[in-house]
Automatic annotation (TrEMBL):
InterPro entries: DUF11_rpt, OmcB-like_DUF11. Keywords: Signal. It comes from the Bacteria. Residues 1-26 form the signal peptide. This is DUF11 domain-containing protein. It holds the Pfam family DUF11. The keyword Signal applies. Residues 258-344 form the DUF11 domain. It comes from Novosphingobium fuchskuhlense. Coiled coil: none annotated.
């Protein structure tokens, strides 16, 4: 194709666009399609119209490979230690002017900045990728389809993808696991199988359909590599419980309650304080079990009192008298249940025993 014919072809494209012959798409004119325009030349000789001449030019539209991956939403996924099938969601868009297969890969980050002004500190487990069949952002076993690639994604089409993972037990409150989803363009045309790797056309423009990588740089990939990547992350919301057990002497059989001593027959009060650190998730269904040593006798008259408050100073807990619940004594073990302990809150289990 000569430089002049290329100019004529470009002019033809403009003219056709102005006439509405090619509908406008974000992806542009479909790769591989041909654009033909014809120029007509009319002239006269001696004032008499002569048979005119014409010339046509046909060009083939090249393939522009371009895609994007974006996190769905703008916040981290809040998870609890031990939770399974936790979701980070992404939208994958084929902004090329041709259908593509899109290979998918989910990678764990090793330290460094996460997606939401945080820092990666741990890895999730059992990482899988699913196509979100009904686009609701929720993983539904039996509905959403496990995938390693997106098959035959049309130009301008978008697909929602879920990265689904499990959270190990023992993670601290505020711990972050960052994940990156990368989509890579591949050849389309074979339904049900991942197409071959794309090859960018080098050198001068050819008469056939050339391939041009036009993608930008993603979170971890480079520009013009036929791929795009985006980050999302999980942030742990955990309870951070601590327990302090303290004792104080109430009375003894010689001194009564005035300067009592730890002698046989003395009554001891035990204060068990369960605290949850500020900013932590609320802990629920907390069970406290405390076996009674053989040289103590449980005070059944006092019983087991729960859900009171305490003051803590220098590692010693002093339980207040207020209580809203009762515990039990069975098999020589004191038990108390706390329905919940919120972040920054302390609740207690209190009982008494006599020294044998």
């Amino acid at each position: 194709m000569t430089y002049r014919s290329k100019l004529l072809g470009a002019a033809g494209v403009c003219a056709l666009a102005a006439l509405g012959a090619n509908p406008a798409h974000a992806a542009g004119t479909t790769a591989g399609s041909t654009i033909t325009n014809t120029v007509s030349v009319a002239f006269q000789v001696g004032g008499i119209s002569q048979t005119g001449t014409s010339a046509s030019d046909t060009l083939t539209v090249d393939r522009r490979v371009q895609l994007t991956v974006a996190e769905v939403g703008t916040t981290t996924t809040t998870v609890t230690p031990g939770a399974v099938n936790q979701v980070t969601a992404f939208t994958v868009v084929n902004t090329s002017n041709a259908p593509l297969d899109l290979a998918l890969a989910a990678a764990q980050q090793v330290g460094g900045a996460g997606a939401h002004s945080n820092t990666d500190t741990f890895d999730v487990t059992n990482v899988r990728i699913f196509r979100d069949v009904n686009n609701n952002g929720t993983y539904e076993a039996g509905t959403d389809t496990a995938v390693t690639f997106l098959d035959e994604v049309a130009a301008d089409a978008s697909v929602q993808v879920l990265v689904v993972s499990d959270v190990p037990l023992g993670q601290a409150n505020g711990a972050v696991a960052a994940v990156t989803l990368t989509a890579t363009g591949r050849e389309a045309g074979g339904v049900g199988s991942l197409g071959a790797a794309l090859v960018q056309t080098t050198g001068a423009n050819t008469s056939g359909m050339d391939t041009v990588f036009a993608d930008g740089a993603g979170a971890t990939d480079s520009a013009r590599d036929a791929a795009f990547s985006a980050k999302d992350d999980y942030t742990v919301s955990a309870a951070t419980l601590s327990a302090i057990k303290s004792s104080r002497i109430i009375s003894d059989p010689i001194n009564g309650s005035t300067n009592p001593k730890m002698i046989p027959g003395a009554t001891i009060q035990y204060c068990i304080a369960i605290s949850n650190a500020s900013g932590s998730a609320t802990a629920t269904s907390i069970t406290v079990n405390d076996p009674i040593p053989a040289n103590l006798t449980y005070d059944s008259t006092f019983g087991v009192k729960t859900n009171g408050t305490a003051t803590i100073a220098s590692g010693v807990a002093t339980c207040a008298a207020d209580t809203t619940g009762t515990g039990t004594m069975a098999s020589n073990t004191v038990s108390g249940t706390l329905a919940s302990v919120a972040g920054g809150e302390t609740k207690t289990v209190v009982f008494q025993a006599t020294i044998n």
